[in-house]
Amino acid sequence: MTKHRIGAITEFADGQATPVSIDDTNLVVWRDGDDVCVVKNRCPHMGLSLTKGPGGPRAENGEITCPWHNSRFDLCSGENRDWAVGFAGRKAPGWSQKLIGMGRKPAPLTTYPVSRQGDDLYANW
Predict the structure, then answer these.
(1) Measured between alpha carbons, how far is 104 from 33 in angstroms, rounded to an integer?
(2) Which residues have CB under 8 Å from 34's CB, separation 6+?
(3) What is the CATH number that goes with domain 3-124?
(4) Distance CA 50, CA 68 (A)
């Protein structure tokens, strides 16, 4: 694992998910006061961006919702909270959710450990 500087804590708005790209790795940085979490900007369902898509970026209360298929995840643990429950911000009927899931089982986001040195934040991958 290599330590990568992701920025100063002041570069990330409190209560917002911010997409960043470091050394060709796309990340989402979530800041909640002095707590910072970093996940890979890639939904495990189809590998699409968590911050760009037809449903628009949606992150609040420490969770992010995939703008493609509405899968919802905890931004610090990566835990899956809902799996492919709709499309582009719209809820799908229950009978179609397995179809939207395309046979893929719920999976967590990839998370990265974060450390802080002064105001600088670092993630390891």
Answers:
(1) 35
(2) 9
(3) 2.102.10.10
(4) 8
pTM exceeds cut of 0.85: yes
Residue with token string 């999976």: 107
Residue given tokens 């939904």 in the structure block:
43
Tens place of pLDDT per residue across the chain (125 aa): 899 999 999 999 999 999 999 999 999 999 999 999 999 999 999 999 999 999 988 999 999 999 999 999 999 999 999 998 888 888 888 777 777 777 788 999 999 999 999 999 999 99
Could you tell me how many helices (H) and strands (E) the chain has, helices first?
Answer: 1, 13
Cα angle 68, 70, 72; round to 5: 125
